[in-house]
Amino acid sequence: MVEQELQKDWYVVHTYSGYENRVKLNLEQRRESMGMTDFIFQVIVPENETIKTGPNGELKKVVENDFPGYVLVEMVMTDQSWYVVRNTPGVTGFLGSHGQGSKPNPVTKDEIDRIMHRMGLIERKVDDLNVEVGETVSIVGGAMNGMEGKVTAIDREKQEVKVLVDMFGRETETEVPFNDIDKIY
């Protein structure tokens, strides 16, 4: 085998909308039954848990799919693993494949790390924070979740940034852990 074929990468698989978890289960079962555990590794449905207000004013935890119709698959791209994933019930194809038998392009490490961090599956390391003072960031966790602001200071020792956010019409500086911010590109 060629060395490039042994490269483990993440790929985006397109599914019928609403079938993401079923595809995940089917693919995990096929991986085992077809002896592909050395080529197909993790299967993830990108989801986030949010709190919504119900019709009677009660608060409920709701799981929302971040990318309806898509599943992430970590795999070594070989002819056989490609065939197994493509022919899993509910799968309509790979994102980044140009059709006519061409294999798809993998997702970049930065993109997959951002998704995994947002889901709480990985912790961001100090070296992974690629922002500088003056850049705009999105706050993706904690009390300021969903807000955007400008970085005013970076404390690598505490693993926090100071972010200037607009709250109630006033600029307010808040400290946010590295894990709770994403750079806006």
From TrEMBL:
Q: Which PANTHER family match?
A: RHO-INTERACTING TRANSCRIPTION TERMINATION FACTOR NUSG, TRANSCRIPTION TERMINATION_ANTITERMINATION PROTEIN NUSG
The protein's matches in Gene3D superfamilies, at most eight in alphabetical order, are given as: 2.30.30.30, NusG, N-terminal domain
Q: Which UniProt keywords apply?
A: Transcription, Transcription antitermination, Transcription regulation, Transcription termination
Q: Which CDD domains is this protein grouped with?
A: KOW_NusG, NGN_Bact_1
Output this protein's name: Transcription termination/antitermination protein NusG
Q: Which organism is it from?
A: Oenococcus kitaharae DSM 17330
The record's function comment reads:
Participates in transcription elongation, termination and antitermination.
The source's superkingdom equals Bacteria
> What SUPFAM superfamilies does UniProt report for this protein, alphabetically?
N-utilization substance G protein NusG, N-terminal domain (SSF82679), Translation proteins SH3-like domain (SSF50104)
The similarity annotation says: Belongs to the NusG family.
Q: What is the lineage of its organism?
A: Bacteria, Bacillati, Bacillota, Bacilli, Lactobacillales
Q: What HAMAP family does the record point to?
A: NusG
- Pfam families noted in UniProt: NusG
Give the record's GO CC terms: cytosol
Q: Which InterPro entries match?
A: NGN, NGN-like_dom, NGN_dom_sf, NusG-like, Rib_uL2_dom2, Transcrpt_antiterm_NusG, Translation_prot_SH3-like_sf
User: Which GO biological process annotations does it have?
Assistant: DNA-templated transcription elongation; DNA-templated transcription termination; regulation of DNA-templated transcription elongation; transcription antitermination
Every copy of the NusG-like N-terminal domain together lies at 7-119
Q: Which SMART domains match?
A: NGN
